[in-house]
Amino acid sequence: MAQKNKNDVTKERLLNEAEGLFAQKGYDAVSVREITKAANCNLAAVNYHFGNKQNLYLEVFRARWVPRAGLLQEHFRKSLAAQGSPSPTAVAKALAEAFLVGPLSDEERHRHHQLIVRELGQPTEAFELVADQVMRPFFKELADMLRPVMPEGLGEKRLMLNILSIFGMVLYFNFARAAVTRIAGYEYDTAFKARLVEHIVEFSLKGLGGAEKEEMR
Amino acid sequence: MAQKNKNDVTKERLLNEAEGLFAQKGYDAVSVREITKAANCNLAAVNYHFGNKQNLYLEVFRARWVPRAGLLQEHFRKSLAAQGSPSPTAVAKALAEAFLVGPLSDEERHRHHQLIVRELGQPTEAFELVADQVMRPFFKELADMLRPVMPEGLGEKRLMLNILSIFGMVLYFNFARAAVTRIAGYEYDTAFKARLVEHIVEFSLKGLGGAEKEEMR
DNA sequence: GTCTATAGCAGGATAGAC
DNA sequence: GTCTATCCTGCTATAGAC
Lengths: 217, 217
What we know:
The structure is a homodimer. Chain A has ten helices and no strands. By secondary structure, chain A is an all-alpha fold. The longest helix of chain A is centred in the first third of the chain and has 29 residues. Chain A has two domains: 51 residues, Homeodomain-like (Arc Repressor Mutant, subunit A, Orthogonal Bundle), CATH 1.10.10.60; 148 residues, Orthogonal Bundle (Tetracycline Repressor, domain 2), CATH 1.10.357.10. At the A-B interface, helix 6, helix 7, helix 8, helix 9 and helix 10 of A face helix 6, helix 7, helix 8, helix 9 and helix 10 of B. The structure holds a DNA duplex.
């Protein structure tokens, strides 16, 4: 923190390139050689800065993924606060907007979701990290927020299923972008993303019991 | 086809083991050595029967994934036909049931979805195969089926988004099983899968415009 | 902190015996 | 068709010079 010399810069570049490559190809398909070449530094740099490849992967989550998830949550909370009371509709809209448009660039968002989807399908140590520091706290926050405004007698299980489902939708449309484009021909431009947000909100409303009068901003 | 000697048996075993391993770990994380060992045959067998590793992977889709997708569609069509008119509710229910309970064993279903999710996130030649032979035709069939019974003025784009979304939900709850269990504590037993089917149907109804009177079986 | 050089091993693929 | 033996490439990781 005190010194800001070449060391830190190399480390940062390694983290950036590693994240991009791990997201794009998965852990095993990426070699340390590829990462160091992309980061324009020496092969030995990964071992010097991170000990080994595994730990570089973990550090990508610690130093990049978790903070970025914090950014997304912050964006969500602000846009929700701007809407007054947290109705199911408002929550769904703020969530979908934060995660599909939000504060991240297209590339950053895609990286972010590719990384977590790989972990969802095949959890490693990185998943535990993310589950503890991001998912469980955030899901609890959402549950506490939604519980009072949900239909009576919905139950904790159904509540959690609904929260999981919204995230499922958001993840799916982000990570399967290439496939959706090839199958349905949709380009992920601004207009389509806006439409997607609307779609996900609508799609989620029934589950969230948000059939009450629709309200916008 | 004429001869059913050791040759065919080895080939079948290779396909089975390869499918399981590719689904579980992904293409790059699996070695030919690992596959042949699991199939209890010689290292050279992969090259003899399939030419190379890449082609074995493709053959897994051609000889296993596509036929199994056919089974699922068949199950879907039968259970839909048993319900009379194809209302949005009936379609959603038949789909969710076929893909979450349906004719496959838990392990087979998991394999099936793991494989396709990897391809959705990072399409290879196998994705083109599946898109041409399975996805595009089936999505078209569903669209033709739903178009007449959907709300007026929904539009082709929204129709396709809704179809994609149901598949997204189904895929998500199948492939992220390990993560869902760790985060929410749900075991994927029979009761939970039945609940999941109900949940997905409900969750999808608004999007499908199925707010009409609910009908079952 | 960064580099070169290299150890040491695992990977895909093939040749050729049986 | 199946096997063993082997080639060669590419991998992670480290030692040691600068």
